[in-house]
Every structure is written in C-alpha cells, then in structure tokens.
C-alpha cells in the first residue's frame, strides 16, 4: 500500500519584484517513490527542492512532510526536522575543504546526534570510497566528492533524499556511478526527489513532474505501482 | 568532532588567524605594559617627587606664623616651643615607617655675620646632613635599628658647589646659601665668623664661632639666604640642647594619603603637629592621576584598535566561509553550534594573543620603566588573568557582529548552484 509522504498545498514562493519561482503548486509525493522534477532554468526546480528540504520558507501555502506541517516551524525547528528526515545531495557537493572524506561524513553525524567513525567509514565503503577515507576534497575527483556527499546524506538514515542535479558536474562515467547509487537507495525504500535537466535521468524515476514558470506543466506517472495505480503482485 | 572541526578550521587558516592573534597581542601587550607601569608608577613617580623636597613638616603644637616655606608654617621661634631631638627616632616607628624616606630636624637661630657697618643678621640653620639615628623601639623586630637620614637625603635637588658636610660630628664646617656667599665674597675653604648674642636687643653675651665654608648651596629659595651647620653647632651656640624647631619629613605617598602619615606622627610625638606641604602633595596626586588617566586612555585606544582588527578578521572569515556555514546548517547545525564554533575560535585567538601579549607587555613595560623612570618595572603575575580576560573579552566582543552575521546566513542562498 502506498502512502503519501510529501504534500504541497497551494505552495507559493514570492521574491521581490513580484517574481514567483513557485506559483500555487499543489502536489503530493508517495513514500518510497522517486520523483524527478524537470524544467528549464528559472522554472523553480531548485526553489521547490529547497522548500521541501526546509532550506527556504514558503510565502503562501503549506508543506506537509510525514504528517508535519513544516511551514509552521521556526528556523531551529526546521533545522532539527531536516536533520532527522532529509538528506541533501548537491550538484556542487559542498564538502568542507579542510576535513577529510570521513570527517565530512562524521560532521553530519555530529550535528545530528553522536559521532561513530566506524559508521561513517561504512557509509563511505558503501559508496565505493573505502580507500579514500583520509583524503580531503581537493584530492578527490568530482565523482568521488559526489559520493562523499551521498554518504553524508545517508549517514543519519533519512527517509527522504533530495538531490539537486547530482550528476550535473560529473562526466558520464562518474554520473553513472552516482545514478547507480541513487537507484540502489531507491530500491532500499528511500523517497527520492531529484531535480535534473537530463530527460534520461528524469525518466529513471517513478514520476516525472515538469515545471515552467513556477507551475506544474506536466505530471506523469512512470511507475504506476508506486502510486497504487496497479497493485503489486 | 567539535574539537577536530575547530582545530582543522584554525590550522587551515593560519595566516588569517595570525592576523587576528597579532591584533590581540598588540592590545594585550599595551594593556599589560601600561597596567604594569601604572601599578608601579605611583611608587616611581612618588620617588621622583621626593627629589623635590619634604612633603611633611612636623612642628611643635602652637599658634604659628609662616616662616621659611610658602604655604607651610611651623612653630614661632619667639614662643620658644621645640621638638625634642631625642624624639626624632619615633618618626621611623609609625605603621607606614617604610614609606618615610628621610627626615631632617632644623633649629633656626638668627646670628650676625660681618663686622662693623657690614654686620648683618642671617638665619643659621642647624640640621642633620647625613646622620645615623638609633631607632630605640622599632615598630617591628625585623626593622633596622639604625636609620641614616638628613637634609642631604631629603633635598637631593639642592645645587651644591663644594661638598656636603658628611661628618655628623663636624662642628667647624658650614654650608652657606649662595646669596650669603655673594654678599660676603665667600668661597669654598674660606672661614666665616658668626656671632650669637644671648641678648640680641642689647647685643650682649656674645659667642663667636669660626666656620669653614665647605659648600655653597643654591636652591632659588630661602635656603640661599641661610647658613647650614650640624645641629649640634646650633644647639651649642644657643644653649638649646636636644631642641629643634621643626622636622622636615619626606614621605612616599602612593598607597596611603599623606594625611595618614601626619596623624601617625602626631600620635608618636604627641606635642607636635604634622602638616602636609599642600601644593606639593596636590601636585603629586594631580600628576599621578593624570598619568593614570592617560594610560587608561591609551589602553582603551589600543584595545579598540585590537578589537577592530579582530572584528575585520572574523568578518572576513565569516564571508569566506559562508558556504561552509550554510552547509553545516543544511546538515543540521543549529545556530548555537555555529555560534559556539566561531566563539571557540575567537576564544583561542584571545588566549594565544593574551599569553603572548602578556609576555611582550612585560618586556614593553621594562622599556617604558627604564626609559621614563630609569628603573625596571616589577613583572606582576596577577596581571596574567587580567591580560587573558581582556584578550578573550575583546575577541568575543569583536566577534559578536560577525557571528551574528553567520547565524543569519541562509543555506538556500549560499549553497545555490549558480
């Protein structure tokens, strides 16, 4: 039985000069589903991801995640909610330059709860970086840095993974490695919301939402089973 | 993990941290130096002032007229009131005895010099030049029993041609004021004849003394018109054994007010009253106050400059680390964790700056002490916590705005891909 995990109701984000990167969107996403969000530059994809990821606040409307209306939370509550429920994968990895791969992962543990180095090591081994634990980001390739970013996103076992162009800065080979990882995480039951420009990557998900000018221009279900349209046999 | 982040964050930005530390060192060094000097300067300036003469006059309790020192009066000669020479040692038995740098008794007598028509009156002052006094009942058993004192000790500013009278039993030598010497064409080594009349009105009962001129005194004051001899000579001449008219006391006033000395001396020599030389004491206090005010202001300016240096460095650091801060927030760091990271960095900068600032400050204080006061400044370990407190306080204060700025960073904005 599928279950709704993210629900956006009449969501609007208004910036100055009356620009609306998100304009009255109502949509829900199911638990365990991979939702790809596509659209041209400036269509509001990243803004939507930031709103779901508690990194930005809505101007109007509401966001419900796992039954919590996060639009009613203050800054610190949003931070706590994010670290408990959401893992973030950035296009530009955003690793702390002076910390090693394993320390970057441990940092997420530290801000979440307790630091357990062996768990951080395991997370890096899982993304194929067991041999690069003590390397600082400057000594890692782009693909390796993105895998550290994924390990960091996973370390606190969030239910939802938000990925903003995770392969945008990678060559094809490294992009495939990263996508393989994301597919594995999807299989394991993580709910994934992935923003991409690449239609091939977009179609890897269970659902594909297209945004234009902050509005949903199309919404297609690719894997009907995840959305309860057909029953799993 | 916090310490690991803190350590790596500091060690990867050594040059920035060094600039902040140098700013703190400068502030802490100046604060330490001026604080050290200021704690010592009272005493040092006090000693400097003591070169300009006595600041206390002890006279017999009586109705008085002003004689000798502007603004200072002592017992009238005509009233024939005296202090006993045998009580002088008591001045060195007060609680603040160690601050009594010296004293000199004086017995005045008008005598005649010259002969015939040139005969004229002049004041003869009997005093101690440099005499060992026995302290009969010391205040403490640890106190020395002999105290060397005299006019030479308390009036080092006198300009003396020739020599001081150094033998305390010398009854044939004198030191004459420059005006007396000029009037009588006296030179060092000449013999001066003085006449004392027991009955001055009728000029009878004459006693004649021949004194060798050992030194000529120039002070631009009343001393230029006087003749100085050992106290014993004046006492013998006038038959006033054991008597003195007044005692000039040089007291080092730093921790205690000079009035306290006066009260204590009056307690020891009960028939005397001690009076402060108000102009000297108030000038001394005034200058001390001004020096301390100036040092306080310089310290404030140095600390402000130091705070500005730290603030600039911390602000730059926050700007440079916006993405890092945004990232920390995005992975769950609450504001208080960001604040604690930056304030811990600031505290470390403050502690390092404080320690080095203290060391450099002590060296600087020696330089100030030697070049301004010709003496070294005692290093005071009690300043260490003050220096550290000031340094850490300044860095924390200077970090307040940059840290506030760090908490305002929006991860969504700084982590944006563009």
Description:
The complex is a heterodimer of chains A (233) and B (418). With 233 residues, chain A is an alpha/beta fold. Chain A has a domain at 4-97 and 158-225: 3-Layer(aba) Sandwich (Rossmann fold), CATH 3.40.50. Chain A is 32% helix and 25% strand. Chain A contains seven helices and ten strands. Chain A has helices at 45-52, 75-85, 101-112, 117-126, 142-154, 172-187, 199-202; strands at 4-13, 22-30, 34-38, 60-65, 68-69, 86-89, 160-164, 191-195, 207-212, 215-221. A six-stranded mixed sheet of chain A has the order 6-7-8-3-9-10, with helices on both faces. In chain A, strands 2-1-4-5 form a four-stranded antiparallel sheet, covered by helices on one side. The longest helix of chain A has 16 residues, at 172-187. The mean pLDDT of chain A is 86. In chain B, helix 2 runs antiparallel to helix 10 and helix 7 packs parallel to helix 10 (383-407). Chain B is built from eleven helices and 16 strands. Chain B has helices at residues 2-11, 14-50, 151-154, 178-183, 231-238, 258-268, 278-320, 322-330, 335-372, 383-407, 411-414, and strands at 56-60, 64-69, 72-75, 83-84, 100-113, 120-127, 131-134, 146-149, 159-162, 173-177, 191-199, 204-218, 226-230, 243-244, 246-251, 272-276. By secondary structure, chain B is α+β, with helices and mostly antiparallel strands. The mean pLDDT of chain B is 83. Chain B is rod-shaped, with a radius of gyration of 33 Å. Chain B has two domains: 2-44 and 286-414, no CATH class; 55-276, no CATH class. In chain B, strand 11 and strand 12 (204-218) form a beta hairpin. Classes of the chains: A alpha/beta (233), B alpha+beta (418). The interface between A and B is medium-sized, with 35 and 27 residues.
